Amino acid sequence: MAEFDKVIKGGMVIDGSRGPRYLSDVAIKDGKIAEIGHIDENRAAEVLDADGMIVAPGFVDLHTHYDAQLFWDPYCSISSWHGITTVVIGNCGFGFAPVAPEARERAMLSMTRVEAIPLASMKEGMPWDWETFPEYLDSVDRTPKAMNIVPYVPIGPILISVMGLEDAKSGRMPTDEEHKEMCRILEESLDAGGCGWSAQRLPPTGPGGAQLDYDGTAMPTDVMSNETALEFAKVLRNRNAGHMQTTMVTGDPKADQAHMEDLAKVSGRPIVFNVVQATDTKPHIHRKVLAWLERCREAGTRVYGQGLTTDAGFAFTFVDWNLFDECPAWREATVGSPEERLEKLADPERRPALREQIPEFVLGPFENIVLTGPASADSQKWLDHTIGQIAEQTGKHPVDAMLDIVVSENLETEFFSMPPNGKLEYLKEIVDNPYVLFGVSDGGAHTKFLTAGRYPTETLVKIVRENKMISLEDAHWRLASLPAQLAGCPERGVLRVGAPADVIVYDYENLEVLPSEVVHDLPGGEWRRVQRAKGYKYVLINGEVTIVDDEQTNKYSGQLLRHGRGSKAIKRAVAA
User: Residue 84 and residue 529: Cα distance in Å, rounded?
Assistant: First the structure.
């Protein structure tokens, strides 16, 4: 009988610790790394040839919304295609538990806009065999997975379950009894395996206010008081466990930063702040955030930034586009059914307000948006033209130039825009801070617009190989070990004896992100945009090979990591 289940033979090991790379073999037994060094092939039942390849720990993505998709897609694609082996769900305070049966439809409707997840997919693809958060985790545990899942406890459903939907969205201060009950639910959810809690805190309008409910109103956490957030922070303090994730832009950066520092100090736990983004025209913004993060580090306050390091752009049509919500006129005009949107965008009386409120927060300069998918012969001449070019040639305002085409083509015109963070020198300023996490993939969300789950491959190709901003050793620490520590699973994100065998083997010199494509693979007949990777020879999760040569093997060895630990480990601990 073989001593090991597998040996990864002859690769260049980058172990995630920031230590120097070394040529070595890696042996695996019972889902864990059993030995590293020179290992004879005859000691293993299976040999995986890694000659000329990098062998590294699987990537850990702290910011995803696979809460629904994991039920119909065991691979949580596109993340798994890009070397990610562990994802954290429940970000931004959004989730599906606790949710009473009569509130399920409303919970799904919220996610159709704030995270742009198709309603038909959620209705058909989610089992809804739970009400409480512990029951939700049990359902995730039962579901076949080719990805490790770490759950945040989302605060939004807790606010709604205790205060009711209207009051939770009103901004009313909870009573002492309501605070007590919400903290009890949070405790119960953390007991079941939550790694901490999350909450989006964005303004209903203005810069940053582009993540709203399906009807254009604020999400409950947007209007949650600082006092309530501090009550939740105290729960983590009493447990001395878990961390927090927040997206916070209220219009007063100093007050926001002071509040996040308070959360970190009151809880004694880390907080991950979204998002640190370079904007080509306003570099002072990210520089001030980086300076604040450095002050926090020097003071010993555990605040980490989540950096937007991908330049994945947005491809969209006005059938379902929702990321102009920072501007009230655009938000109102793009709420409702496609028929209602068409009527509003065609309304000449609305055009002055739409022209006045030019959205730029998400996409950058409006006139730089490119028409990439004409839906009629009449607009074929505008293929690959910017809105600015079309406006100049037609003598129209850019808003009218765009919307006249959109209306004539029944909202089906496709556009593309790069995010406003293209300058490499500004990206390097973010990358140079070793405690800014890479990512903000939003995996599972905005699936018709965005493919940011490609960020690990993009990091290795663009940031390391092409522009040499950091070493491979540093990149793998930032992509795997650091986020694993914050997620409460420090044994992952590293290659060492005894660690779970979440391992990627890839061809560094030939690694690439493939072009965007549309696939019709969602429940309910829905479609999405994806970008695949080329160059991943093997991906192993808990010792099983889930991907070979960039193709899925349909091995479901992923685990629900309650408190950052595998479900089996938890059950053994409870039994003991």
Answer: 18
Taking the CB of residue 523, how many other CB atoms lie within 10 A of it? 18
- Structure token digits, residue 355: 């022209």
Average pLDDT over residues 31-57: 98
- pLDDT for the residue 576: 32
95 close to 70: Cβ distance less than 8 angstroms: no
| 485: three-class secondary structure by DSSP | helix
40 pLDDT band, cuts 50/70/90, is very high
Instruction: Quote the number of domains for the chain.
Output: 2
Burial zone of 572 (CB within 10 Å; 0-12 exposed, 13-18 middle, 19+ buried): exposed
Looking at residue 340, its amino acid is: E
Mean pLDDT value of segment 92-103: 98
Compute how many other C-beta atoms are within 10 angstroms of the C-beta atom of residue 457. Answer: 27
Helix (H) or strand (E) holding 84: strand 84-89
Rounded Cα distance between 181 and 165, Å, is 16
Give the end of a domain, one of 417, 438, 472: 417
List pLDDT tens digits, range 329-384.
999 999 999 999 999 999 999 999 999 998 877 777 899 999 999 999 999 999 99
- What is the span of the domain harbouring residue 204? 59-313+420-518
Q: How far apart are CA 248 and CA 284, in angstroms?
A: 18
Judge residue 290's burial from the number of C-beta atoms within 10 Å of its C-beta, 0-12 exposed, 13-18 middle, 19 or more buried.
buried
Domain stop point among 469, 488, 518: 518
Domain at 65, CATH number: 3.20.20.140
**472: which 2 tokens?**
């491979």
Residue 129 to residue 24: CA distance in whole angstroms: 46
The position carrying tokens 């072009």 is: 515
Alpha-carbon distances, residue 102 vs 32, 107, 108, 156 (angstroms) = 43, 10, 12, 17
Write down the mean pLDDT value for the chain.
94
- CB neighbourhood size of 82 (10 A): 29
Q: Is the pLDDT of residue 187 over 80?
A: yes
Question: Which tokens go with 533?
Answer: 């990777």
Q: Is 155 helix (H, G, I), strand (E, B) or coil?
A: helix
Residue listed under structure tokens 């049990």: 138
For residue 57, list its beta bridge partners: 503
Instruction: Taking the CA atoms of 146, 132, 168 and 272 in sequence, report the sign of the dihedral they define.
Output: negative
pLDDT at 441: 95
Strand 551-552 with 303-307, pairing: unpaired
Q: How far apart are CA 218 and CA 201, in angstroms?
A: 10
Contact status, residue 439 vs residue 306, Cβ threshold 8 Å: yes
* Under 8 Å between Cβ of 452 and 442: yes
Residue 30 or 279, more confident: 30
Instruction: Find out whether 216 and 326 touch, Cβ atoms under 8 Å.
Output: no
Closest by Cα among 47, 70, 53 to 508:
53
Residues 93 and 195 in one domain: yes
